[in-house]
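Hey everyone, long-time lurker, first post.

I ran two proteins through the pipeline my lab uses and got sequence/structure pairs for each. Pasting them in order. The first:
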Amino acid sequence: MKPYEDLGVSRDATSDDIEAAYMRRRSETHPDKGGDPSDFNDVQKGYEILIDPASRKYFDEHGEAEPSMNGLTPMVFISNSVASIVEKLDSVNTRNILTMVRSIVEGVREKLIAESLAHKSSIIKYESAIKRTTRSTGENFITDMLERKILSAESAIVEIEKGFQFADVVTALLAEFEYRVDEPEPEPRGFYANFRVGGTTTGSRFP
């Protein structure tokens, strides 16, 4: 991934420079004008990274695009989670909202771990079934199907790993914040919230 090179701008390019370069490179690489679809996609991705200050800062510091889930960056995920929790609380003075967000992230991690183990277990069973399945003549469509299942499970594991990376970035960002609680924790009242990250939905019950 080389967003600066794909757009043809320098590292100190302004937002106006990036906008102008994007319009030029978009026209040059557009498939309808004979451009390469791969180059066109690279230009689009490069623009999305560089035009957003937070995404650009992350790329400059890490050399890769900021991880995202369902189109949400870690910052947007945290902000949305905080907003959802705030809306459900009677008072924001008596509960540590950031601790509650961390609980949500840990719930996501647990689900990702379970899903990863399930896929890995399936792959082992698919591979064993392939070795045991033969056909006297013709195409072995059963093993072909099982091999496709393995590829699908491997792809799912790759996406799950991205989910772990996303959770790591969220956790690191949360560590930069503090939340002041003014009063002792009240007696448990309880509410339940669902949060979705990637293909994983996790529920957290808060007393």
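...and the second, right after it:
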Amino acid sequence: MKLATTRSDARNASRGARRSLGPAALAAGLLLAAVAAAPLAEARWTIREVGNHPDYNLELEFHFALSLVQGPYVSSGTGFGPGARITAPVLQNGFVTTINNSVAISFGVDWIHFSSFAKTNVDDFYLPLVLQWNFWLTDEWSVFGEPGLALVLRTNRSTTAAPVLNAGARWLLTDDFAVVLRGGYPVVTVGLSFIN
């Protein structure tokens, strides 16, 4: 009898996590569209100007992270917390030699807090390492893709590895300061970036 109840609870929690993904993904998409609409229309397109992007050595990003992935023993499929990334360029002119693109390595940490069935705290620490491929569309906007891996450390002392697959956008407010939006698996982030 106890096993059936446990399976039923797990099934219901899984359904709840899937239902919560839709509204959160829609909200993130609408936010990105609203933020991008006005400045993108006024910006000067630079995608065909090879190398016409900030020449930086390091990008330091602080962000708010949201995880839509349900962790183990978690009653809520949504967790949240702070995070940071350090990004260093490895190719100023990226894989496609005819457009304005660059390649960087990015690593960092996200501390995600979940609520649990037992009303105790469950925290995940994501340590992502990704390849960031940037496409510099305008003098103010770039988009990027990030494939990679993350080490996931859990407060229950388990450690796993997870794939990382993100897409994002960077809005350059100045040559040294940007707003960064990132969405994908396992987290969605919104933050501020300092480019040096």
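Reply from user beta_strand_b:
Welcome! Quick read of the second one: Confidence is low (pLDDT under 50) at residues 1-20. The CA atoms of residues 80 and 183 lie 14 Å apart.
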